[in-house]
Amino acid sequence: MVPKTFRGHDGGHLLASVSFVMHHSFAGMRRFSTNAPESIIFEWMNTRLLGKTGIALTELGFGCSGLFGMKVLGKDALTEEQTTELIRTAAGSGIRFFDTGFSYGKAEERLGAALRALQAEGFGREDFVIETKCGETLLPDGSYGPTDFSPDWLRRSVEMSLQRLQTDHIDLLATHGGRRQYFTGEFFALMEDLKRQGIIRAYGVSSGVDAETLEWIAAEQNFDYVMLRYNIFTQKQEEVIEKLHDAGVGVLAGASMGEGLYANRVKFGNRKDLWYLARALVHQRANMKKGKAFRFMNECPDATSNQIALRFVLDNPNVTAALFNTANPAHLRENARASNLTMPLGMTEKILEAYEATNK
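Given the sequence above, the corresponding structure tokens read:
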């Protein structure tokens, strides 16, 4: 059974709302110091504190992943102009937390350029929280190779990320996956040294971490935070999420919309659609058939299916932020409204029932 101690059993939002207010009222009062440019109509968004770090994140984060910097069928999936528009749209929607990675092609460069442009218009660097990832190696031909968690390589990759992002520090640095045996004393010494130098503010591990390693992190409390794949299809993660939270380890929900497998149909209109399909096949193959059981989310008159998926994740008070990505500015603005959404009556219970029915 899925732990449901923080969800209301009348299908509503009440219990989660009470838990949220009690746990996050201080963090939610955090205001960013930005003097936002007049060209951007922007909204405020609730914030939550990340574990014991003292770092406040907007409860929705925008993922600047492979789609931002990689090629599909030999051409860029998105132009630099398109990625800049997406970052501006995210900022205008209240999102101040941006996630990217060293091995995502040109994604770091494009995020850095877009945030630098926003800073020139009136935002401050302190108004944004940037997360990037480390560990994957760079081969002589420019492609990315296997992971290397040695201090020499990690320090070098961090230096490259700083240059690409056009910043003097990285707020959140996560390893790209990894198992317990990779995290040696040398690894932790390097991370702490980077903290002391002000190069990073916190460090964690990202998706691809096995269950044993997650349990170890919860027990040892040796990382500041963890990013794991958590959405309506992976509710089994709630037990370890609670353990991590109770241990003071921050939790970020990656893939919080579950690759949109609950959609009524799959589109094949352009390179972006192909990229999302390929991503779903890699990360969510086992859940593709299960998605049909959740299509009732598309029939709700009060919220979109993506908003419902994000709200489900945000209603877990043990999660600091839910990350999503999209290539469509209109969809981005729409998804960002999930932060202020109350889950439609009865929807939570239906999601729980659909999960139970598809995981017998």
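The first strand starts at residue 47 and ends at 49. Try to locate this feature in the token string yourself.
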